[in-house]
Design brief:
Elements lengths: L1 E7 L6 H13 L4 E6 L14 H12 L5 E3 L2 H5 L5 H11 L4 E7 H5 L7 H7 L1 E6 L7 H5 L8 E4 L4 E4 L4 E6 L7 H9 L10 H10 L10
Helix pairs in contact: 2-9, 4-6
C-alpha cells in the first residue's frame, strides 16, 4: 500500500491543505493520505495554537466524505514535541509492508537539516516536496543538505532524486491557493469571515467554540 503522510499543526486545517493532499494523492497514485496533527511543533512557536483536541476535531470534520483521507492521533497520543522521524518509525512498525510518502513544502525541505535525525528520514520514506507553480524542480538538489548529497543520484528521466535505499525525493507543483492558517487566525481575531477559506463544517466548529477569537486564549 502506498500511503502519504501529511503532518502539521493544522491550526486550523484549510482548503489549501486539502487540495494539496488531493493533488499529491492523485499524482503519486497513493492509496490514502494520512493527516497527522502534531502535539507540539518542534521548530516553531505558533501564536494562538489551540488545544490538540480541537485541531484533531477540525481535521476529522474537514476530511469527512473523502474515503482516501484518514487522520492519525499518533503524535497527539505520544505527547511532547512531535518529531517526524519518530512518527515514521512508529508507522513502519505498525505497517511494515507499506510504502510511505512524506509530504512537505519547499520551505520545510530547505530546513530539513535542522530536523531530528533527519538522515534517517530519507531511508524511511520518499519525500514529496510541494510548492507553488513559480518553482521548478531545480531547487531540490541545491536545497538538499550537503552532508547527504553523496547518498543521492539525480534521475534525468524522472527528474527525481533517488536515495541509496531506492526512496525518492519528488518535486510536485500544486495549485496556487494563497491560503494560510496564520491569515485565517488573524481574520478570526478581528471578527472577519473565513468562509470559503476553510470547509463549512470547520468554520461552524470554530465559531461554535470561539477558537482564535479575541480573548479566546482559554479555549
Amino acid at each position: 500500500m502506498r500511503i502519504g503522510i501529511f503532518g502539521g499543526t493544522f491550526n486550523p486545517i484549510h482548503l489549501a491543505h486539502l487540495r494539496s493532499a488531493e493533488e499529491v494523492r492523485e499524482a503519486q497514485q497513493l492509496d490514502r493520505i494520512v493527516f497527522v496533527p502534531s502535539a507540539t511543533p518542534p521548530h516553531k512557536r505558533v501564536n494562538g495554537l489551540v488545544a490538540a483536541a480541537h485541531r484533531l476535531a477540525m481535521v476529522r470534520l474537514a476530511i469527512r466524505g473523502n474515503p482516501c483521507f484518514r487522520v492519525s492521533t499518533i503524535e497527539i497520543d505520544r505527547r511532547g514535541r512531535s518529531y517526524s522521524v519518530d512518527t515514521l518509525r512508529a508507522l513502519h512498525g505498525r505497517m511494515p509492508r507499506a510504502q510511505f510518502f512524506f509530504i512537505l513544502g519547499m520551505d520545510a525541505f530547505r530546513e530539513i537539516s535542522t530536523w531530528k535525525d533527519y538522515r534517517s528520514i530519507f531511508a524511511l520514506c520518499s519525500l514529496v516536496v510541494t510548492s507553488r507553480p513559480a518553482y521548478d524542480d531545480a531547487p531540490l538538489l541545491s536545497a538538499l543538505p550537503v552532508a547527504v548529497r553523496a547518498e543521492f543520484c539525480y534521475r534525468q528521466r524522472t527528474k527525481r532524486l533517488e536515495h541509496r535505499t531506492g526512496n525518492q525525493i519528488i518535486f510536485q507543483r500544486i495549485s496556487d491557493l494563497d491560503i494560510s492558517a496564520s491569515t485565517i487566525r488573524h481574520r478570526l481575531h478581528r471578527g472577519l469571515s473565513v468562509r470559503y477559506l476553510v470547509p463549512a463544517a470547520v468554520e461552524r466548529y470554530i465559531l461554535q467554540h470561539r477558537l482564535y477569537a479575541r480573548r479566546s486564549a482559554s479555549h
